[in-house]
Design a protein that fits this description.
The protein is an alpha/beta fold. 48% of the residues lie in helices and 20% in strands. Helix 4 (98-108) crosses helix 11 (295-313).
């Protein structure tokens, strides 16, 4: 009887081992299913810009996850978005501020730069904000004084640039002048050389050049504050929504089946929310905020920022 019981227990252990091996094998198959899958990634943004520096780190993580990435230059955000939208190829991916770009397109009656805005097209999201900066050694709080005639550097396009400076002048009863720029790097250079007195610049540049001692940046469009900066809306004491405007950067995927879309969304969302990943480290360095959102909620956020941008452009 004892011998029979031992035999039963031994058989149970064998079956358990087989079950464990079966589960492990199934798991390995699920991993290998994504291994070697190809993605065509459009690098929307200037070659040496912040976006493509992030893209380079994300590619490392995707290749580590088993994807084969075919990276193609986009030259700029707009052109990169157009290349993405026009490319008839399986599993095409791009990362850019689609809400803002598409809202600008609608203003002038153009086709959308990014024409894939269904739930299954949204892969991940990152939010960033702008910081108010002056040249190092300048008292930033003086820019809030009444009666100023300062040169304010902006990089949001003519309509939005004017909206911010007009509102600034109204609140502070000043006659500040808007100076347009086409890149955040040039905004910082303008501060350092004295071509402008103050600028609202992306926090990646604000953090970098603050650490280098070239600029002073104490206030952010983040309504909760962040990256060591206080909320600009609270300082300027004005409820206008533009002082809290968030810049939404989205990863879009097209020409993929439902299974690939869901799996890729999970992979990249996990990557950007992992502080030890290459992309996660770059997000932290840029002062960005990774979003841990479902595809459904990413679409909702796209619509929210699209509406805010449209309102800002009117």
């Amino acid at each position: 009887m004892l011998k029979y019981e031992k035999q039963i227990k031994q058989e149970e252990r064998i079956r358990m081992k087989i079950n464990i091996l079966s589960i492990m094998f199934a798991f390995m198959l699920s991993i290998s299913a994504s291994a070697g899958e190809k993605i065509t990634m459009i690098l929307a943004g200037s070659p040496g810009g912040t976006f493509n520096a992030f893209n380079a780190e994300l590619i490392k993580d995707l290749e580590k996850a088993g994807y084969e990435v075919d990276a193609r230059p986009g030259e700029s955000m707009v052109k990169g978005g157009q290349i993405y939208s026009d490319l008839d190829k399986k599993n095409v991916f791009v990362f850019l501020p689609s809400s803002q770009l598409n809202a600008e397109d609608d203003l002038v009656g153009r086709e959308h730069t990014v024409n894939t805005t269904e739930k299954h097209n949204f892969m991940f999201g990152v939010v960033n904000y702008k910081s108010l900066c002056v040249k190092s050694g300048t008292d930033l709080n003086t820019v809030f004084n009444k009666g100023n005639v300062l040169k304010i550097g902006m990089n949001e396009g003519e309509r939005i640039n004017d909206k911010y400076v007009e509102r600034w002048n109204k609140v502070t009863k000043s006659k500040n002048i808007m100076v347009p720029y086409n890149s955040s790097g040039k905004q910082i250079k303008g501060l350092v050389t004295g071509d402008i007195d103050v600028t609202l610049v992306n926090e990646a540049k604000a953090l970098r050049f603050s650490k280098e001692g070239l600029v002073t940046c104490n206030y952010t469009t983040n309504p909760n504050g962040g990256n060591g900066f206080d909320p600009l809306a609270s300082k300027i004491n004005d409820s206008w929504f533009g002082w809290n405007y968030e810049y939404l950067l989205l990863g879009h995927l097209k020409n993929s089946d439902a299974e690939f879309s869901k799996r890729f969304h999970k992979v990249v969302t996990d990557i950007i929310n992992d502080p030890t990943s290459n992309a996660g480290k770059k997000i932290a360095k840029n002062g960005w905020f990774a979003q841990d959102l479902s595809q459904k909620d990413l679409k909702k956020k796209y619509k929210k920022v699209y509406k805010a941008t449209s309102k800002l452009l009117k």
